[in-house]
Amino acid sequence: MTDQDTAVPVLRATGLVKTHRAARGGAEVRAVRGVDLGVGRGDFVAVTGPSGAGKSTLLHLLAGLRRPDAGEIHLDGRRVDTLREADWAVLRRRRIGIVFQTGNLVSDLTVADNIELPALLAGHSARAARERREELLTDLGLADRADAAPAALSGGERQRAALARALVNDPDLLFADEPTGSLDSRSAREVLALLTRHHAKGRTIVLVTHDARVAGSADRVVSLFDGLITDDARVDDTPPARGIRDVLDLGG
Amino acid sequence: MRAALRWIRADLASHRLPALLVVLATAGVSAALLLAGALLNNVTGPWQRQFARADGAHVWIETRTDHADTALARLPGVTAVGGPYDTTTATLTGRNGRPATGPELPLSLRATDPGPPAVSAPLPVAGGPLDAARPDGIVLEHSLASAAWARPGDRLTLRGPDGRSHTLTVLGIADSPDRARYPDLRPGLAWVLPGTLGTVQPTAALRGHAVGLRLAHPADADYTAQRAVTTLGGDVTRVATWTDARDSHERESRPAGLLLGLCGLAALAAAALAVAGAAAGRISSRLGDIATLKALGFTPAGIARMFVAQHLLLAAAGLLIGGAGALTAAALLPALAPDPGVTATPWALARAVFGSGPLALLAAPACLVTVAAASALPALRAARIPAVPPADGEPAQDRPPRPARLALLRRLPPALVLGVRGAVRGRGRTATAALRIAVPVLACTLALTAWSTLDGLGRTATAGSAAALTVRAAGPDDPLPAALAADPAVSGVHPGADREALAPGQSATFTLRALGTTDRPYPFDVVEGRPVHAVGEAVAGQGALDLLGIRVGQWARVTTDGTPRILHVVGRVVEPDRGGRIVSTGLDTLADATTPDPRPDYWAVTLRPGADADEVSTGLAAAFPGRLDVRPTTAPFAGLATVRAAVVGLVALLALITLAELLTVAAVALRAHRRDLALLRTIGVTPRQAMALVVTRCATVALLGGLLGAALGVPLALALIDAQGAATGVGAGLAHPPSAAALTTLVTAAVLAAAAAAALPALRAAREPAGEVLHRI
Ligand SMILES: Nc1ncnc2c1ncn2[C@@H]1O[C@H](COP(=O)(O)OP(=O)(O)O)[C@@H](O)[C@H]1O
Ligand SMILES: [Mg+2]
Questions:
Q1: From the CB of A91, is ligand 1 less than 6 Å away?
Q2: Beta-carbon contacts of residue B275 (< 8 Å; ≥ 6 apart)
Q3: Closest of B314, B282, B316 to residue B664, by C-alpha
Q4: Is some CB atom of chain A closer than 8 A to the CB atom of B652?
């Protein structure tokens, strides 16, 4: 990781605020209360915190799945929080992959179709999409499950298939919201190994988890509590890189 | 109980739209049934009501004895006696100082006092009653007046039994519901003052006497008639019972009634489905809540009961609204008024709408039973839901998906590929949704077929041309055919003559209609066999075939004016007139030794498309001043306009039901696919594509449903209408399928409506941030 890479953060959020309003005049929940976060290119960032801390909300904001009430989001230096959803959609096709804790697969498409769909949407040829899908499924040990229905897969298989779909366009930004949350430890290890392999190719990953062991695979851990960042640390015993500091300063 | 009520209240408050749909569907259908009942009553019921209003006689006895009434009054079961009325025969020979334009009509004059009699009062249709101050006045029975083309104010020339001529003025035209219509019963009936009858038949001994009997038990009419004959002996000249009268009066309105009944049933079926759908939708949207209710201690039976009760409550509200709506419609639409021309009191209106007969009486129970049955199924399903809410995760699929042709995405928009595929793939769900749309579309097809059948009948009556006239001339008519043929608006001129005919050994008569000639045949609508090619050949309506007991291809022995003839029936025609009891042949077939060159009674004139029938009529009347009667030819069914109005109303109602169905289908589709939609958006489907996807999906379902409904509806409607045709003597072949354009419009409208119904909720779903959706699910 060079200084050059970290100096121009791939993702930079400043002053993000999101307040949820319950449907009928219920109480407001201030899920995210002013978050500044920079993610350098090639970073593997784990966002941790207790349940209800606002981790998912933050991830949704960063991935453009919800709109912030205040604050800005820049992707590669370009402001994206003001984009229309259609433009976000194009961004997500080309550059962003997303994995949730459960319910990732479109239920009436086969596993293979689920994985090929983003590739085809992104404009790849049917052949390229198929080859990429076969490659991913083989990697993930799911080659024989290509024509199965999502409902026919086990939880671990489903999550791996979801990951395959998120990775099919080789996104340089991957968001994962508790991807191992509902998995047994063996499946969780497999999923984590995949993420690490993707990261090793120089891709950026933002991973939400409340599991310290999972956070341990990341090279940076951001702690969220009550909608605010309370801690931001490198996992390895070296002090946080200077570059990150700069990024945070920039963001501040 | 209290808990159930509270839950129902909360449920209704939080799910207003589906609740409203149930209320509206019930309201629409109950209103439709009530109005259909009232219409039916107006179309087919007049006879019954008229009979009651006229205090019609159940048995008529005509005798030569003067004082038959005292003997007859003593017969058991007789509650009132009308008459004896003096009668005499006469012949209608001329009108307004000229010879009659049509054939001479046999009349039976009946002497009555100007006031309404206790039994068998004439019911005025036009003009007024007899008037003591007008000794030259005559009132014609309605069907006779139609046959004579007479109007109030016309001066009629009658030839009395002694050959002398008398001139009488038509004071009015009246219905006589206890007498068969002319020409089912000849002679035709006319009322005159006793003094007038005296001048026509001065010899009292030669007059006949008619006595009408009202019975305590109308079913005993035949028995009473027999007793009357034995009591009076050989003096009885004619006996008739109310059933002959009813058959004659109702024959023409029955097809209209049956078509209307068909429409009502179609509406009920569609509504049942709408309610079932709405109930199922309500329940499937609340699976979690139902599970919770069970966890709280509701029994499965309790839950099923609660759901049915809830829907019955909604249906009851719908019934109230529907009843009010029907009353309003009846007050606003003259076609529904209980008595045309009379301003109805609210009470009479209410009676007309709610008391019109079995259909109206059944409307409320039918709606409630339908709603109960329609909501029971989903309610039972709800009762079977396990108390533990379904676990999160991938929802179970009806069946494993097969690989999609996603490669099409390279060339086609994702909305199209995924939308159509989703509709085609979600087999169980799509089939249900498509069926729900198919049923109202099918009902619409029935209505359209009824409409096109009416059009077809109209075309049959006008010999396939856009318009037709019937022309009658008085006096020498040699220049007339040439003048008619010379008119540029006229496309065809066919001489015609109608003769009353008898089948051997039958008392019932039918019409032998000579129309066109063998050289220039009339374009009959032959549906079986072939047209007439030679002298002595004929085509017949189903009613005539039944009466003669023959089939197409056989020979029939018929008697007209005492002359026996043998006709080769070579074809069957759609014959809506006189219950199909018409045998048609060429005019030259009527020729015999006494009349080698039969004179036509009228000319059937067909007009070119675009010709104005009124203009041609006035032109012809001006060319032959005072010598022509010209009438537009119309389909002879009674109540056609009413059926058309009912069809329009039904289609409107069905459109509403279909729209409600489409809204439910769209809502169900959206709910089932919200998560998938949100997921698709996380992988790069734009909101607009997501919306288009939902719209395409719903439109595809509507297309499937529409095609299915039309495909099933057309043959079903044809079969039903032909069955009715067979039952009414018109015969199979009566039904006309709707035009391809009409069907295409119907299906297209369903698809467009589906797209429109889905567009708004789909837009809302697509606008909703994907994160929100995924968070909640
Ligand atoms: N759509 C929503 N409507 C209302 N409240 C919400 C919504 N989404 C999240 N919240 C609330 O915001 C807070 C943060 O939620 P979330 O971001 O899901 O936390 P985490 O993922 O850290 O558990 C929680 O209190 C949650 O209940
Ligand atoms: Mg979360």
A1: no
A2: B22, B25, B26, B311, B315, B370, B371, B374, B375
A3: B282
A4: no
Among A residues 164-193, those touching chain B with beta carbons less than 8 Å apart: 165
Domain boundary pick from B350, B368, B393: B393
Examine the domain organization and report whether B360 and B499 are in the same domain.
Answer: no
B468: amino acid identity, one letter: A
Q: Do B775 and A98 touch (CB under 8 A)?
A: no
Q: Which residue has a Cα nearest atom 25 of ligand 1?
A: A52
Tell me: pLDDT of A71 over 90.
Answer: yes
Looking at the DSSP assignment, which residues form a beta bridge with residue B571?
B529, B539
* Rounded CA separation B237/B366 (Å): 49
Mark yes or no for CB contact B676/A63 under 8 Å. no
Split into its structural domains, chain B has a count of 4
Contact present, B294 and B300 (Cβ < 8 Å): yes
Is B748 inside any structural domain?
A: yes
DSSP state of B164: -
* Nearest CA-CA distance, residue A118 and chain B, Å: 6
Eight-state DSSP code of residue B406: G
* Boundary (domain end) residue, out of B375, B393, B411: B393
Query: Looking at the structure, do residues B225 and B252 belong to the same domain, yes or no?
Result: yes
pLDDT in tens, B97-145: 777 766 778 888 888 888 778 788 888 888 888 888 888 889 999 888 8
Cα dihedral angle (B257, B262, B264, B270), rounded to 10 degrees?
-170
Are the C-beta atoms of residues B754 and B486 closer than 8 Å to each other? no
**B627 and B705 together in one domain:** no
Over residues B516-575, the pLDDT tens digits come to: 888 888 888 788 888 888 888 888 888 888 888 888 888 888 888 777 888 899 988 887
Q: Residue B775's domain spans which residues?
A: 401-462+639-777
Does residue B444 share a domain with residue B308?
Answer: no
Judge contact between A176 and A192, C-beta under 8 A.
no
Q: Are B752 and B658 in contact (CB under 8 A)?
A: no
SS3 state at A150: helix
Kindly state the tokens that stand for B410: 């390279």
Residue having the nearest C-alpha atom to atom 5 of ligand 1 = A20
The separation between the first and the last C-alpha atoms of chain B, rounded to the nearest angstrom, is 32
Give which of B111, B285, B263 is closest to B646, Cα–Cα: B263
- Same domain (yes/no): B702, B739: yes
A66–chain B nearest CA distance, Å: 5
**What is the distance between the alpha carbons of residues B84 and B208, in angstroms, rounded to a whole number?**
9
